[in-house]
Give the backbone structure.
Amino acid sequence: MSGAPLTVRRPRPPRQPMPHQAAAARVTNFCEVALGLTPELAQAEAERCLLCRKPLCVEGCPVGIDIPGFIARMVKGDFEGAARTLREATDLPAVCGRVCPQETQCEKVCVVGRKGEPVAIGRLERFVGDWARTESSAPPPSLPMTRPERVAIVGSGPAGIAAAGELLRRGYRVTIFEALHEPGGVLMYGIPEFRLPKEIVRYEIQQLRRLGAEIRTNALVGQTVTVEELLGEGFGAVFLGTGAGLPILLGVPGEHLNGVYSANEFLIRINLMKAHDFPRHHTPVFVGRRVVVVGGGNTAMDAARVARRLGPEKVCVVYRRSRAEMPARAEEIAHGLEEGIEFFLLTAPVKLLDRGDGWVRGMECVRMELGEPDASGRRRPHPIAGSHFVLDAETVIVALGNNPNRIVPETTAGLDVTPRGTIEVDVDGATTKLGVFAGGDNVTGGATVILAMGAGKRAAAAMDEYLRGQRDGRAVAKATRVGIEEN
Amino acid sequence: MHRIIFKESLAPGVTRYRVRAPDVARRRKPGQFVLLRLREEGERFPLTIVDSDSEEGSITLIVQEVGVSSALMARLNPGDAILDLLGPLGRPTEIRRHGDCVCVGGGIGVAPLYPIAAALTAAGNRVTGILGAREQRLLILEEEMRRVCADLHIATDDGSSGTRGLVSDLLRDRLRQDDRYAFAAVIGPVPMMKAVCAVTKEAGIPTIVSLNPIMVDGTGMCGGCRVSVGGETRFACVDGPEFDGHRVDFDRLALRLKGYHHLRECALQALGPREAKAPQ
Ligand SMILES: Cc1cc2nc3c(=O)[nH]c(=O)nc-3n(C[C@H](O)[C@H](O)[C@H](O)COP(=O)(O)OP(=O)(O)OC[C@H]3O[C@@H](n4cnc5c(N)ncnc54)[C@H](O)[C@@H]3O)c2cc1C
Ligand SMILES: Cc1cc2nc3c(=O)[nH]c(=O)nc-3n(C[C@H](O)[C@H](O)[C@H](O)COP(=O)(O)OP(=O)(O)OC[C@H]3O[C@@H](n4cnc5c(N)ncnc54)[C@H](O)[C@@H]3O)c2cc1C
Ligand code: SF4
Ligand code: SF4
Ligand code: FES
C-alpha cells in the first residue's frame, strides 16, 4: 500500500471523455480515430491525479517517466514545464501517449484505478507531446558536440531514435543508417495513420536532425555497408536497432496464392507507399470483397482496420485462441468491433483455397479448443476433429508476428544470435562483438515501442561508458528477454 | 541524389542508363540489383546492376518499359536525378571455376545475364552464350556478350537473326553436338527459364536462374517476393535473386507475377498521355 495517499478521501470525478471520430465516419477515412483532449479537458483530467509521493504508476512505466511531476505542471497550466519533464525520460511522448499499452503498464497500477478508472496518463502524455509540437515556442536545446567519437545507429525505429537522442545529449556525433527511404521504423511503415499520424513521426525525426543527427536513408547495413566497415571507418561504437521485420508466414498449403499478404507487406504498401491512393500513388494493393486476417496481436488489428477502410463488404479476424489470450490492446479490439470487424476466435487456418487461376478464394479453417498451458503460460489450442469449415476470402492477411532480419548477424562475424535469430546482449545492451550494442525488437522479438525506446536509451548509456573507457565493449553475461508473441 | 549521366536506346522500349552511384559501383558484384524510387508517389522497383565503372562512380542499368515505373524511368534523361536508390541488394552470383559454362538469356534477361557471363569468363571459364529474342531488333547486348563469351549463338522466334526457334531448342541441339557444360546460368521470361531448365536438368548440368518476382522493400521485410524453391518458401530479395533452376516452381512464379496486371492500364492512364510515353 506504499503508494496510497493517506489524506485524500473525496470521491474522484470520472475520467474525462476523449473525443473520437464516430465509427461510421472513420471507416471511410484514414484520419485519427481518437481526437485528443482539449486543454480544458486535459487540465480537468490532470486534476484527477493524486500526485502520490510514492507513485506506483512510475514503476509501471518501462522508462520511469516522472508521471506526477509532469501532471502537477499540467494542473498549473504549465504545459511547457510538463513537456520538459517528459523529455527527460522519453523522446517520443506524442507517440507513446498514443500507442503504449497503458492499461497494462502505468495506468494498470495507478491508485485512482482501484476505485473507478485510473488517471488517463497516456492521454495526458499525448496532449503534452502534441502541445509541445504545435504550440511550444521553446527552441530545441542546442547540444554541443563535446565528444570526439562518432557513433553509428542502425535502424531508425523507436530503439534507434531513443539511442540517437541519448547519445546526442551526451555530446556524440550521431549518424543513423536506415534501409528504407523514410525513417521511423514501424512507426512509419507499420502503425497506421489513424492511430499514429505520420506527421508526428516526421516531426520527431526532424527534431533529431535539428539536434545534429545525420540520417542516411537507403542504407541497408550488411549489404550497402557492413558493421565491420562502420567500425573501421571511424565510428567508435555501433548501435543495432534493426527491429524484427522478417514476417512469419502461415506455413499452410496455398500461401503463395495471389491475394495473400503478410501483414508487413499489406501495411508497408499502405502506410509507407500509400497504395490506398492508387493510381495517384503508383504502388497497388488488392482488397477483395471479403478479407480474412489471421492473428490476434496489434498487427492483426491494424491490418484488419486498414482493410476495413478500403471498402470491402466484410473483414474477419481469425485467431486460434480465445479473446482473453489476444495480445492486441483491448482498446484496439474494441475499436475493431465498433468498425464492424468480425472475430472468429478459437479458429485456425488449415489451408488456402485456389480459385483455379492462382488467386485465393477462401480459407479452410478448423475450430480449436483450449487445453493445458504451454511455455508462454497460455492454454494451448487443439483442433477439434471434424470441425472444418470454409471462410470465403479474396484477400488474406497473415499477421503471425515477425522474427529479426538476418542480414546484420549473417554479415557480422562474432555477433551471436539465439536460435530464434534475436541478438544476444547483456543487461545493458552490449553484444558479443566489441563496440556493438543492440536493443529493441531485434533483441526481444516483437514487443512495444516503449520497451524498444528504453532499450535504446540503456544501450546508449552503456556505449557512452564504453567510449569513456568505463566498461567493457562486449557482453559481460548474456541476458535475453522474451518479447510479446503475436500468435 | 543519383544523377543520370548517360542514356541510350538499345531496342524498342529498352533503354540503357549510366547512373552516378559511387558507393554502389564500388561494392556491387555480379548478380546483384538496386531498388529505385523515382518520385514521391513512385513505387520501389528492382533493376539489375548490369555493369559498373568505379572510376566514373557509375552503374549501368537497363530497363524495359512494361508498366508505370519503367515508363517513368524511360522518360528520364541525362541530368535528371533518381530520388532513391538502394543497393547493392541480393546475394552475388557464386563465381567459380567450372570449366565449360553456358549462359542462356532471353529478352531483357540478357541484361542480368551479361555481368554473370563476364565474371565467369574473368574467373577462367570457357563461356558459351545463347541469346534469344522475338526478333532481331529486340536483341540486346549482342556485342557485349560476344566480347565476354568464347562463342555466341542466337535464336529468334522469326529467324531474323541466328536460328529460328527457341533458345531451349538451340541449347538441346548444342548438347546433341556433344557440347559439355559443367554449369549453366539461365535468365529470361519465366516460360523460357522453365523450358531451358528442363533441358539442363535432363543433361545433368547444375543451373542457376535469376528470379524477378514483385518486390516492395527489397530488405526481407514484406515477403512479397516469396518464391517456392525445392518446396520451401524463400524471399528472392535476400535469399536470391539466384536459385537452383532445377528446384524452382516456375508455375507459381508466373502466377504471382500476374498479380497486378489488371491494374497496369489504370496506372498508366493516371499518368496521362504525356508521361506514359517516353520521348524516343
Ligand atoms: C503493425 C504493428 C503495430 C504495432 N502496434 C504497437 C502499439 O500499438 N504499441 C506498441 O507499443 N507497439 C506496437 N508495435 C510494436 C512496436 O512497433 C515495435 O515493438 C517497435 O517499433 C520496435 O522498435 P525497434 O526500433 O526495435 O524496431 P523497428 O521499429 O522495427 O525499426 C527498425 C528499423 O530498422 C531498419 N533496419 C532493419 N535492418 C536494417 C539494416 N540492416 N540496416 C539499416 N536499417 C535497418 C528498418 O527498416 C526499420 O526502419 C506494433 C508493431 C507492428 C508491426
Ligand atoms: C531482382 C530483379 C531484377 C530485375 N532486373 C531488371 C532489369 O535489369 N531490367 C528490367 O527491365 N527489369 C528488371 N526487373 C523487372 C522489373 O523490376 C519490373 O519489370 C518492373 O518493376 C515492372 O514495373 P512497372 O511498374 O513498370 O510494370 P508493371 O509490370 O505494369 O507493374 C505492374 C505492377 O506489378 C508490379 N511489378 C511487376 N513486376 C515487378 C517487380 N519485379 N518488382 C516490383 N514490382 C513489380 C508492380 O507493383 C506494378 O505496380 C527485375 C526484377 C527483379 C526482381
Ligand atoms: S511511456 Fe507509456 S507506460 Fe510510460 S507513462 Fe507514458 S504511456 Fe505510460
Ligand atoms: S497517476 Fe495515479 S498512481 Fe500516478 S501519481 Fe497520479 S494518482 Fe498516483
Ligand atoms: S521484397 Fe519484401 S521481402 Fe523481398
